[in-house]
Design goal:
Pfam families: SMI1_KNR4 (PF09346). Residues 235-290 are annotated as: Disordered. This is Knr4/Smi1-like domain-containing protein. There is one protein chain. By secondary structure, this protein is α+β, with helices and mostly antiparallel strands. The protein has one domain (2-103, 128-245): SMI1/KNR4-like (3-Layer(aba) Sandwich), CATH 3.40.1580.10. Helix content is 35%, strand content 17%. The protein starts with a helix and ends with a helix.
């Protein structure tokens, strides 16, 4: 009985932690192999050690999250031609992997450019719609939340930092593969809900960029998130969605219009239809009389 209660308790915990998304995924057509990785809560001393080491104060919602589970991993696959294909992935790094975003030391030559050299005041200035973009230098402290499967990085960013002082205010930003910043949310809770809502589909973070996800990623979104995918704001100058979509009404529009010119060509002779018919009729009658 204790084992049964433990199983029920764990399922209830997973339901609350994942906002019920595991049950939703299992009900979608073709979805298989939904996996949630169970993790123990992080110890409070680890959180205090991280704050002291990085001179940053974790936001309260992220702190509560780590005290519930030390990171988050949920993945699922889609069955394609009878074979499971890994598709969805939702990841929040553990405290140990919440590391500063820094340049690889593989090519650290004396005169090699650094990430700080990419900063441009024009590109990082804030606007009314979103705050000032992060900097790669000491003005910002950036930590990786989600590696995004190599398609970019979701980062916890502390902006307007002063050397030697503890940073408190944080935001969540997306760094794409071209090293451009895109604002996501002002809090970890908002980002977490956003990740769950997008089902961890490939490249979903690119919905918050001017260019959007790749055509292949959009196809998966049309399949598993049709309501939001059809309201895609990323369109080309002609007003058409930037996605390889098969629309029969458009694809076969030329064939559907082929019979129309034939009908129009016969229309001008409509006024003289009586004469040929009459002539034809008199000819036949004349033939029978003969």
């Amino acid at each position: 009985m204790e084992d049964v209660r433990d199983v029920k308790g764990f399922k209830g915990f997973v339901e609350r932690l994942t906002l019920g998304i595991t049950r939703v995924l299992e009900g979608l057509p073709g979805v298989t192999d939904v996996r949630f990785v169970e993790r123990e809560p992080a110890e409070k001393r680890y959180l205090l050690s991280w704050e002291k080491k990085n001179n940053c104060l974790l936001p309260e919602d992220l702190r509560d999250f780590y005290l519930t589970t030390d990171g988050f991993t949920l993945s699922w696959s889609s069955r394609l031609e009878g074979q499971p294909v890994p598709l969805g992935s939702m990841v929040i790094n553990s405290v140990a992997k919440l590391l500063p975003l820094c340049q690889s030391t593989l090519y650290c030559l004396p005169n090699a450019p650094t990430l700080a050299d990419l900063d441009s005041e024009e590109e990082t200035e804030g606007s009314e719609d979103q705050p000032e973009a992060p900097h790669f230098d000491s003005r910002s402290r950036i930590f990786e939340l989600d590696p995004c499967g190599g398609n970019g990085k979701v980062c916890l960013v502390f902006n307007n930092c002063t050397p030697g002082e503890e940073a408190e205010q944080s935001e969540v930003w997306f760094l794409d593969r071209a090293l451009y910043w895109h604002y996501l949310t002002s809090s970890f809770t908002a980002y977490y809900r956003l990740m769950i809502t997008h089902l961890g589909l490939p490249e979903w973070q690119y919905n918050f960029t001017p260019y959007g996800p790749s055509p292949q990623a959009k196809q998966w979104a049309y399949l598993y998130r049709p309501l939001t995918a059809h309201s895609d704001p990323h369109i080309d100058p002609t007003g058409e969605p930037i996605v390889n979509k098969l629309d029969p009404s458009k694809a076969f529009r030329g064939k559907a219009k082929q019979p129309v010119p034939k009908k129009k060509s016969s229309a001008p002779s409509a006024g003289g239809t009586g004469t040929p018919k009459a002539q034809g009729g008199s000819g036949r009658q004349g033939g029978t009389r003969k």
